[in-house]
Amino acid sequence: MTIDIRALYDELRDRHCDLDGWDWWPMPAGCIQQLAGAILVQQNRFSRVELSLAALRDAGLLDADALAVADPDQVAAFIRPSGLVRKKAPALVASAAWLRDHGDTAAQLDDDELYRSLRRLPLVGPESADVVMMYSYHRPRHITDAYARRLYAARGLPTTRSYQSCARAMITAWEEAQMTLAEAGSFHALVVTHAQAGQLAAEEAA
Predict the structure, then answer these.
(1) Under a CB-based contact definition with an 8 Å cutoff, are residues 59 and 18 in contact?
(2) Whole-prediction pTM
(3) Cα 52 from chain centroid?
(4) How far apart are CA 17 and CA 136, in angstroms?
(5) Cα separation of 122 and 165, whole Å?
(6) What confidence tier does 149 reach under pLDDT thresholds 50, 70, 90?
Protein backbone atom coordinates (compact mmCIF):
# COMPACT_ATOMS: atom_id res chain seq x y z
CA MET A 1 0.00 0.00 0.00
CA THR A 2 1.35 3.40 -0.97
CA ILE A 3 -0.06 6.87 -0.60
CA ASP A 4 0.08 9.53 -3.29
CA ILE A 5 1.25 12.52 -1.24
CA ARG A 6 0.67 14.96 -4.09
CA ALA A 7 -2.95 13.80 -4.43
CA LEU A 8 -3.42 13.94 -0.65
CA TYR A 9 -1.97 17.44 -0.60
CA ASP A 10 -4.42 18.57 -3.29
CA GLU A 11 -7.32 16.98 -1.41
CA LEU A 12 -6.41 18.72 1.84
CA ARG A 13 -6.05 22.03 0.01
CA ASP A 14 -9.56 21.61 -1.39
CA ARG A 15 -10.90 20.91 2.10
CA HIS A 16 -9.03 23.52 4.09
CA CYS A 17 -7.89 26.08 1.50
CA ASP A 18 -4.27 26.66 0.57
CA LEU A 19 -2.55 27.37 3.88
CA ASP A 20 0.76 29.18 3.93
CA GLY A 21 2.97 27.00 6.10
CA TRP A 22 4.99 29.99 7.30
CA ASP A 23 2.01 32.16 8.23
CA TRP A 24 0.49 29.17 10.04
CA TRP A 25 3.63 27.98 11.85
CA PRO A 26 3.38 29.23 15.46
CA MET A 27 7.06 29.55 16.30
CA PRO A 28 8.58 33.04 15.94
CA ALA A 29 11.05 33.59 13.13
CA GLY A 30 14.77 33.19 13.74
CA CYS A 31 17.06 30.20 14.21
CA ILE A 32 17.42 30.55 17.99
CA GLN A 33 13.66 30.91 18.44
CA GLN A 34 12.97 27.90 16.23
CA LEU A 35 15.53 25.67 17.91
CA ALA A 36 14.56 26.77 21.41
CA GLY A 37 10.89 26.31 20.59
CA ALA A 38 11.49 22.82 19.22
CA ILE A 39 13.10 21.85 22.53
CA LEU A 40 10.64 23.63 24.82
CA VAL A 41 7.51 22.29 23.12
CA GLN A 42 8.39 18.68 23.87
CA GLN A 43 5.73 17.16 26.14
CA ASN A 44 4.14 20.57 26.42
CA ARG A 45 1.68 22.99 24.84
CA PHE A 46 2.76 25.89 22.69
CA SER A 47 0.93 28.33 24.94
CA ARG A 48 3.37 27.35 27.70
CA VAL A 49 6.31 27.60 25.33
CA GLU A 50 5.33 31.17 24.50
CA LEU A 51 5.65 32.07 28.19
CA SER A 52 9.13 30.58 28.34
CA LEU A 53 10.28 32.28 25.15
CA ALA A 54 8.95 35.61 26.42
CA ALA A 55 10.82 35.20 29.71
CA LEU A 56 14.05 34.36 27.88
CA ARG A 57 13.56 37.35 25.61
CA ASP A 58 12.93 39.71 28.52
CA ALA A 59 16.11 38.42 30.18
CA GLY A 60 18.15 39.03 27.04
CA LEU A 61 18.71 35.31 26.57
CA LEU A 62 16.85 34.76 23.32
CA ASP A 63 20.16 35.39 21.61
CA ALA A 64 22.58 32.63 20.68
CA ASP A 65 25.70 34.37 22.02
CA ALA A 66 24.09 35.22 25.36
CA LEU A 67 22.32 31.91 25.85
CA ALA A 68 25.43 29.90 24.93
CA VAL A 69 27.27 31.18 28.02
CA ALA A 70 24.28 31.32 30.38
CA ASP A 71 24.09 29.33 33.61
CA PRO A 72 21.68 26.42 33.00
CA ASP A 73 20.20 26.95 36.47
CA GLN A 74 19.39 30.53 35.53
CA VAL A 75 17.87 29.38 32.26
CA ALA A 76 15.79 26.79 34.11
CA ALA A 77 14.12 29.51 36.14
CA PHE A 78 12.94 31.27 32.98
CA ILE A 79 11.60 28.17 31.23
CA ARG A 80 9.69 26.70 34.15
CA PRO A 81 6.32 26.93 32.29
CA SER A 82 7.67 24.43 29.75
CA GLY A 83 8.49 21.71 32.27
CA LEU A 84 11.38 19.22 32.32
CA VAL A 85 13.69 22.13 33.09
CA ARG A 86 16.63 19.98 34.27
CA LYS A 87 16.88 18.51 30.79
CA LYS A 88 15.68 21.41 28.69
CA ALA A 89 17.84 24.15 30.23
CA PRO A 90 21.24 22.55 29.42
CA ALA A 91 19.86 21.48 26.03
CA LEU A 92 19.02 25.11 25.26
CA VAL A 93 22.50 26.24 26.25
CA ALA A 94 24.09 23.53 24.07
CA SER A 95 21.86 24.42 21.13
CA ALA A 96 22.72 28.10 21.46
CA ALA A 97 26.43 27.22 21.47
CA TRP A 98 25.86 25.20 18.29
CA LEU A 99 24.19 28.19 16.64
CA ARG A 100 26.99 30.50 17.79
CA ASP A 101 29.64 28.17 16.40
CA HIS A 102 27.80 27.24 13.19
CA GLY A 103 26.01 30.49 12.42
CA ASP A 104 28.02 31.16 9.27
CA THR A 105 28.40 27.58 8.11
CA ALA A 106 25.19 25.67 8.90
CA ALA A 107 23.37 27.03 5.86
CA GLN A 108 26.19 25.77 3.66
CA LEU A 109 25.84 22.16 4.81
CA ASP A 110 23.95 19.73 2.64
CA ASP A 111 20.76 18.20 4.01
CA ASP A 112 22.37 15.05 5.41
CA GLU A 113 25.20 16.95 7.08
CA LEU A 114 22.86 19.51 8.63
CA TYR A 115 20.50 16.80 9.86
CA ARG A 116 23.32 14.80 11.47
CA SER A 117 24.75 17.92 13.10
CA LEU A 118 21.39 18.89 14.59
CA ARG A 119 20.71 15.36 15.77
CA ARG A 120 23.88 15.39 17.85
CA LEU A 121 22.36 18.12 20.02
CA PRO A 122 20.66 17.09 23.27
CA LEU A 123 16.86 16.77 23.01
CA VAL A 124 16.91 17.35 19.25
CA GLY A 125 15.23 14.24 17.88
CA PRO A 126 14.26 13.45 14.29
CA GLU A 127 11.12 15.58 14.33
CA SER A 128 12.82 18.57 15.95
CA ALA A 129 15.69 18.36 13.46
CA ASP A 130 13.31 18.28 10.50
CA VAL A 131 11.29 21.19 11.87
CA VAL A 132 14.40 23.32 12.38
CA MET A 133 15.71 22.39 8.94
CA MET A 134 12.47 23.40 7.24
CA TYR A 135 11.53 26.53 9.15
CA SER A 136 15.02 27.90 9.88
CA TYR A 137 17.12 26.61 7.00
CA HIS A 138 14.43 26.40 4.32
CA ARG A 139 14.84 22.76 3.37
CA PRO A 140 11.67 20.89 2.32
CA ARG A 141 11.14 18.15 4.92
CA HIS A 142 8.53 15.47 5.44
CA ILE A 143 7.19 16.05 8.96
CA THR A 144 5.87 12.62 9.94
CA ASP A 145 4.49 13.74 13.29
CA ALA A 146 1.72 11.95 15.19
CA TYR A 147 -1.01 13.59 13.09
CA ALA A 148 0.66 12.55 9.83
CA ARG A 149 1.11 8.97 11.04
CA ARG A 150 -2.54 8.78 12.06
CA LEU A 151 -3.65 10.19 8.71
CA TYR A 152 -1.53 7.74 6.73
CA ALA A 153 -2.86 4.86 8.83
CA ALA A 154 -6.43 6.03 8.22
CA ARG A 155 -5.67 6.00 4.50
CA GLY A 156 -4.50 2.39 4.61
CA LEU A 157 -0.78 2.57 5.29
CA PRO A 158 0.28 -0.04 7.86
CA THR A 159 0.53 1.65 11.23
CA THR A 160 3.99 3.00 12.00
CA ARG A 161 4.66 3.75 15.64
CA SER A 162 7.67 6.00 15.32
CA TYR A 163 8.55 9.16 13.45
CA GLN A 164 11.50 7.53 11.72
CA SER A 165 9.74 4.32 10.74
CA CYS A 166 7.00 6.33 9.06
CA ALA A 167 9.54 8.51 7.26
CA ARG A 168 11.30 5.39 5.99
CA ALA A 169 8.03 3.79 4.88
CA MET A 170 7.03 6.95 3.01
CA ILE A 171 10.39 7.95 1.56
CA THR A 172 9.58 6.88 -2.00
CA ALA A 173 6.15 8.53 -1.90
CA TRP A 174 7.69 11.74 -0.59
CA GLU A 175 10.40 11.78 -3.24
CA GLU A 176 7.86 11.12 -6.00
CA ALA A 177 5.72 14.03 -4.78
CA GLN A 178 8.63 16.45 -5.41
CA MET A 179 7.29 18.95 -2.91
CA THR A 180 8.74 22.44 -2.99
CA LEU A 181 9.65 24.20 0.24
CA ALA A 182 6.38 26.16 0.19
CA GLU A 183 4.38 23.01 -0.51
CA ALA A 184 6.13 21.03 2.24
CA GLY A 185 5.31 23.75 4.76
CA SER A 186 1.73 23.97 3.52
CA PHE A 187 1.33 20.18 3.63
CA HIS A 188 2.43 20.06 7.27
CA ALA A 189 0.02 22.89 8.10
CA LEU A 190 -2.83 21.15 6.29
CA VAL A 191 -2.26 17.82 8.06
CA VAL A 192 -2.31 19.50 11.47
CA THR A 193 -5.36 21.60 10.54
CA HIS A 194 -7.17 18.50 9.26
CA ALA A 195 -6.58 16.77 12.59
CA GLN A 196 -7.41 19.74 14.80
CA ALA A 197 -10.64 20.34 12.87
CA GLY A 198 -11.81 16.88 13.88
CA GLN A 199 -11.81 15.48 10.36
CA LEU A 200 -8.99 13.02 11.01
CA ALA A 201 -10.88 11.55 13.97
CA ALA A 202 -13.92 11.20 11.71
CA GLU A 203 -11.84 9.27 9.16
CA GLU A 204 -10.49 6.98 11.86
CA ALA A 205 -13.99 6.29 13.17
CA ALA A 206 -15.43 5.53 9.72
Answers:
(1) no
(2) 0.89
(3) 17
(4) 24
(5) 21
(6) very high
